[in-house]
């Protein structure tokens, strides 16, 4: 049987405190659930945007590779014409170089001028004449943006998990406050309320430190 202390003024004060704690824990739990849902949305949207940018970057890199292949083909054709000292054909190919490769080619020609017989000197390895096309620069920028979005998604996931963890603690608080109502003595009730209060304060402090998401 419960002792007579349950009907005393101190018991009524404990009931009031427990009721306030129940309300606060319920509101905090709802807030944590709401924030967890918002951060889940941030995570999903960030992953989707990052994936789209990676796909576009891959397309641009493929395009840049194709243009590099064309640059190499024209350069090889130019070398063949140069080997035969066919100036007209060399000029024909030079006019078809894209601006990015023409810039690299002009630098190379300044370093490897014709010899005294008018023959083109042996040039560098083809890898040295790889031009950086605009697609390559755009692809790099997109990959950097995708990396930032992936990091944002990971942080959102971590933050959402922390909000979920706080709801678990708050659920324990609600459980302790609930079973305190059927405790057989005032001392037992007080102990359960004190434990619940400590956990509740810890959960509220944890929630206070977490970043908030907005619609």
For the sheet with most strands, the description reads: none
Count of discrete domains: 1
Strand content: under 5%
Radius of gyration, in angstroms, nearest whole number: 36 Å
Distance between the termini: 52 Å
Please, what is the average pLDDT? Answer: 85
| Mass-distribution shape | rod-shaped
Uncertain regions: pLDDT < 50 for 5+ in a row?
1-6
Total helices: the number is 5
- Elements, N to C (H/E): HHHHH
Structural class: mainly alpha
General description of the model:
There is one protein chain. The protein has 215 residues and is mainly α. The protein has one domain. Helix content is 78%, strand content 0%. The chain contains five helices and no strands. It has helices at residues 9-83, 87-94, 99-111, 134-180, 186-209. Helix 1 (9-83) runs antiparallel to helix 2 and helix 1 (9-83) runs parallel beside helix 5. The longest helix has 75 residues, at 9-83. The chain is rod-shaped, with a radius of gyration of 36 Å. The two termini are 52 Å apart. The relative contact order is 0.18. The model is unreliable at 1-6 (pLDDT under 50).
Summary keywords:
215 residues, disordered N terminus, single chain, mainly alpha, 5 helices
Q: Brief description of this entry?
A:
With 215 residues, the chain is mostly helical. Helix content is 78%, strand content 0%.
Helix-strand blueprint:
Layout: H1 9-83, H2 87-94, H3 99-111, H4 134-180, H5 186-209
């Amino acid at each position: 049987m419960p002792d007579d202390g349950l009907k005393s003024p101190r018991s009524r004060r404990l009931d009031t405190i427990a009721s306030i704690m129940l309300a606060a824990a319920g509101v905090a739990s709802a807030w944590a659930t709401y924030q967890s849902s918002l951060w889940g949305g941030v995570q999903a949207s960030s992953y989707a945007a990052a994936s789209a940018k990676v796909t576009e970057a891959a397309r641009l890199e493929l395009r840049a590779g194709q243009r590099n292949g064309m640059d190499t083909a024209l350069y090889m054709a130019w070398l063949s014409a140069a080997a035969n000292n066919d100036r007209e054909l060399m000029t024909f190919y030079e006019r078809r170089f894209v601006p990015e490769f023409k810039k690299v080619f002009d630098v190379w020609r300044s370093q490897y001028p014709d010899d005294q017989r008018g023959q083109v000197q042996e040039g560098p390895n083809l890898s040295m004449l790889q031009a950086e096309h605009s697609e390559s620069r755009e692809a790099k920028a997109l990959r950097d943006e995708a990396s930032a979005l992936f990091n944002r998604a990971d942080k959102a996931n971590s933050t959402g998990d922390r909000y979920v963890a706080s709801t678990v603690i708050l659920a324990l608080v609600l459980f302790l406050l609930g079973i305190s109502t059927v405790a057989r003595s005032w001392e037992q009730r007080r102990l359960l309320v004190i434990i619940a209060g400590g956990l509740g304060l810890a959960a509220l402090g944890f929630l206070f430190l977490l970043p908030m998401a907005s619609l």
